[in-house]
Structure formats: structure tokens, C-alpha cells
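cron nightly-structures :: item 1 of 1
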Amino acid sequence: MKAVFEKREKNTVHFNIELPAGDFEGALQKAYLKNRGKFNIPGFRKGKVPRKIIEMNFGADIFFEDAINMLLPEAYSDAIEELKLEPVDSPEVDVEEINLGEPVNVKFSVDVKPEVELGDYSTIELEKVDYSATDAMIDAEIDRVRNMNSRMVDAGDRGIANGDFVTMDFEGFIDDEAFEGGASEDHVLEIGSGQFIPGFEEGLLGKKKGEAVEVNVTFPEEYHEESLKGKSAVFKVDIKEVKVKELPELDDEFAKDVSEFDTLEDYKNSIRVELEKQLKDQEKIETENKIVEKVVEMSSFDVPEGMIQSQIDNEIKDFEYRVGMQGFNMERYLELTGMSVEELRDNFRSVAERRVRADLVLEAIAKAEGVEVTEEDLDKELEKLAEQYKQENKEKFVEDMKKGDLGFLKAGISNSKVLDLLNEKVKFI
């Protein structure tokens, strides 16, 4: 087999391969043996009809398609390896007229990775991303933990106030008629949370446990239920319980209860250390994102549509996994949102294109800078994965992983090395 490069138009490469006449004849015979049981011709037992008789009755080209399909996968694979191509989509195939006893010429057109024209990334200037843990952040974290460790206590014989939790039965009426969806029993509402329509929570302020009250409200014009938009309603409410959230005292005992530390001061310091670590991670991510945006912006190339569609597929799979973690399947999600599959794919298009562009530029820089992923790099990354997934036998995990395709892992390691390199070149202002 011989592969001949013809031309490149943007990201589409055209090339020809020539299948030897002998190879094609051998494939024809295999196609005949595979399919001869399908033919019924008078005078011959089924499956015993000679090839020549079948070709005389059904045409000389009866086995051409099957023979070509047998030869092309290996021939195509050998051709792209010989021509050093990196296809990003399935090829278009055109088989020229076949003459028995002569080589078969096949034309291919396939999208390949684009040639990236890099800008001068050594000139990049960026504003430094700098975050520090503030007292307000620490106080907010402590407030969160205090709320998690709070308890509900009876509010006593006083009127309802903002922040109280009210347990109630209620039913809503419009023109003295109860409306669908306007009633509930033992409903718990935090007053001041804004969960109900405007005026409802305010109408309970000052009322007491055991009271039966009427609250007058008007549904907003933008309310989600069409039949209730702008309507005036009366809710009849029976107040069953009024409770208030009691937070633990902010002292050393609190620190001992919620942490490994004996004093509140030590606990606060531990929060500061953890926040600083998280903020440093955030700084790194944001800085890398800004660098990538810059190098992509100063580079020139067109992205083949096939690469974008393939990345959209990846985004959809990832999204489907996240939706599944929330107890939905994709069909149910689309039903609830009223979105079609095409609309969902359109929503992911810009994200997918950005990721493809970033990966292509980082790959191009890796080649330009001679960045390599060593066996040691792979081992370190696989060991991290083993720890992440809590593998008891790390050696076996690494060994098993190496039997598979580690392209995704190599790309990630290479990208990290490139980002470290770019980080050294960038001038921060």
C-alpha cells in the first residue's frame, strides 16, 4: 500500500492510498466466503454457489463494498501513521472506479489538528492575583459552624420576630375560593427569609403561638403561576409553634466541641491557615486561567468543527454525571428545563471551544519549548491518583493503569509543565 499526500486546505488534509490488486482480490474472496450463504440460485445448494456464478447473476461488483470495508481500516491507519497526521474527526472516503486486476485508488479527506501560530508569549504582562484571609472571612466561617451546631428552642410567650422559625397550617383564598397549591400543614418558615410572596412573612410579625390570623397579600405580576399573577389573596394561618435558633457561646468550650483545638484563638488560627491555603489555590487557578487566555488571544489558528463537537460530547458526559449525582437523569433534566438536546449542546459550545483552543495552544508551546513527560512524571501522577482513590495496593493500581491509554494523563502533566514555564516568563504588575 502506498499513501500519497495531495494537499492541505486550512485544517483539512487530502491524500490518496493505492490498494494493491492482489490485496483487493484476496478481500473479494473473503467477502464471498462470508456472504455466500445468503444467495439462492437454482441448481446450487445454499452456501455452495460458486463466486463466479454469483457475480454473473448479481453483478461483478457484488462483493466490492465488503472487500473495500475489510481493507480500509488498516490501510487508513497505516496511511495516517506514514504521513504523520493527527485526525480529529472521521474521514470522508471516495473510492474511484474499480477495475479488477488493477490497484484500487481511494481518496481521503480528513480534518486534522490545526497548525498553531504562536505569539510572543515572553512579552505577557498581567496584574498579579493576590488574595489574603480577612477577619471577616474567619468570622463568616465561625458563624457557619455555629449555625451548624445551633439548636431550636421555644420562643416563649412573645410576638413573632425576624429570624424566628414558625410552624403553621395555612390555606389561601381568592374571592373566598381556595386555590390549588395554596395550602399546607406543619409548614416551617423562617421569618425574614423571603421564601413566601411579599407581605406574607410581614403579616405574621408580632403574632403569637396559638393564634389564628388572616394575612392579606397580592401575588406579584411576574409570579410563575399564570392564574395567580397580580391577584389579591387571603391566607388563613394557624400558628402552632414559634422557635428561635440558639447559637452556642463563642468561647473555648465551643472550640473544643467543633475542633481538635483547646482554645478559641487556636481554632481561629487554624481557620486562617486553611483559608490561606484555599486562597493560594484560587490565586494559582485564576493566574493560570489569565495566562492561558493571553496566549490563546495572541495565537492564530482555526479550530476544526469536529474537535469542538467532540469536546461538547465530553462536556455533556461530565454534566450528565453531575446531574446524576443530584438524583436526575438527563431525560428528566431536559423535561424539567424545557430544553432540547440541541439547545443543551449550544449552551456548551463556547466552553468547549475555549477548552479546545487552550489545549491546542498549550500543546503547541510544549512542542516549541521541548517539554516532555517522563516515566517518572507518570509514576508520580499515578501514585497521587492511587492516594486520591484510596487504593490499598498502590503498585498494582499503577501497573494496571499503565496497561491502558494514559494520553489524558500525559496531556495534563504536559499542560502543568507548560503553565509553570509560562508563569516564569510572565511579568506581573
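cron nightly-structures :: done
The first strand starts at residue 2 and ends at 9.
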